[in-house]
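Re: beginner question about structure tokens

> Can someone show what the tokenized structure looks like for a real chain? I only ever see the sequence side.

Sure, here's an example I had lying around. Input first:
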Amino acid sequence: MTLTDWLERLSPGPLPVFAHTRQVLTEQRRRAEEISAREVAQTILSDPFATLDLIHRANQRGSRMGGEITTAESALMMLGLGRYLDQTRNLLVLEEGPQGRDAKLMATLHSLLRRVHHAAWQARDFAVLHSDVRAEEVQVATLLHAIPEFLLLLRAPAEALRLARLKRRLPHEEAEQQVLGGVSLEQLRLPLLESWKIPELSRDLLDPSRVEKPRHAILHACLDIAERAQRGWWDEALLGDYIALAGIENLPLENVIATTHANAMRAERAGDWIAAPGAGAWMPMLPGPWPIDPDDEEELVTAAPAKPVAEPVPPPTAKPAAPTEEEEAHQLCPLPDKQVLRDALQNIEGHLDGSLNLNQMSAVILKGLHTGLGLSRILFAMVTPDGRQIKSRFTLGIKADDPMRHFAFELETRDLFGQLMGKMQGVWMHQDNREKLWPMLHPSLQKMIGDVDFYAMSLHANGKPVGLIYADRGHGDCGLDPHSYTDFKMLCLQAARGLGKLKQ
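And the corresponding structure tokens:
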């Protein structure tokens, strides 16, 4: 089928809503005299079908009046809240139609709904953190991103289920083109939403070519987080999303990670009616094989296994005393992973064509330092826009209340770090040179860093200083060594090359 064929098959028409949506709207209709449009909008925004239907209807009417409606609350005001609630009596219910009799289809719908619900929750919260007064527009656009998948499950269930299976073992775009006859969901998304009269502003937020803008970057990072976290929180690619959000929000990396995890748990609780586990369920990951997905069951050719024998539950044991903060921080020394270091060096080399932005390049650098070199506390400071200071931009492994969060020094100062910035060079502070080098640090930085060995290296790109990388292994017994210092300098040299070739 061609793109035109799919647009015709998924064209505007009657849409069902999930049974939970109609149930809540029915209860809200009884309070029509006192309920607010915002409260009803929140119900609608938990259901992508209801959201699409509402925005579509409002813009059908709004287009005749010369306006575009981009939020559920505005759409309700356009159509009339009382009138909309009255019309909910006639809503089609998904579970009461043929889809409701197909257990596999409903499982896939609920799994998709969980992912989209989580992404929209993250996107709205990070938009609010960015002081976006129209954060609901970002939330709505995030929900609408998955409309091609929802409509395929509704109008072309056989193809949609096959696509879900193929995506588990093929790159997504390859699977989409194989099932949809050479058409990808990305190619289908924007023209499909346009056919449903979704406003240009909402479609613009979903345009992957505009991801450099803050609202777009927030939306796409949250979509990626929701998709990756659907199968656990240990995907290393999540670090790139966290760093992107940290740069946009101007927040420490650890704060962004904590906010993301908290949002996942809130989304999990808010969607307790959705019959599928969400990313919040995988927060306390347990050892063992990943459960078989319902979509994969028909591909298993082995006989059904016998019922597993329940393992005896061991008697409860007394919990050991909680370690002190110092013990907890230094029980284990991180081990360098040479393969991760090599991957980081090659990744930077492969993106000297300007294909990565600052956040993406920083993610590669931080991963190489943290996992590749086994450095537990890392600080990436950059030249401020006025060119006068070097100031902390990204941190990893540094606690929120640690003074190192406020690491900064004047570029023209003559202390140790200021002298480092004169050219690209590094320093390893250790017990043999501490007596000589420590007095060269400004007293405020001495107090901030404390009695710890560290590596530091200035970064220059295109003949100018761009920043400084500081790294250590904490204040415990995990010392530094000459081999790691050599690798640290090698990675910093490559990092400087990458920073000089960022996407503009």
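Each token stands for a local structural state, so reading them left to right follows the chain. The CA atoms of residues 341 and 372 lie 4 Å apart.
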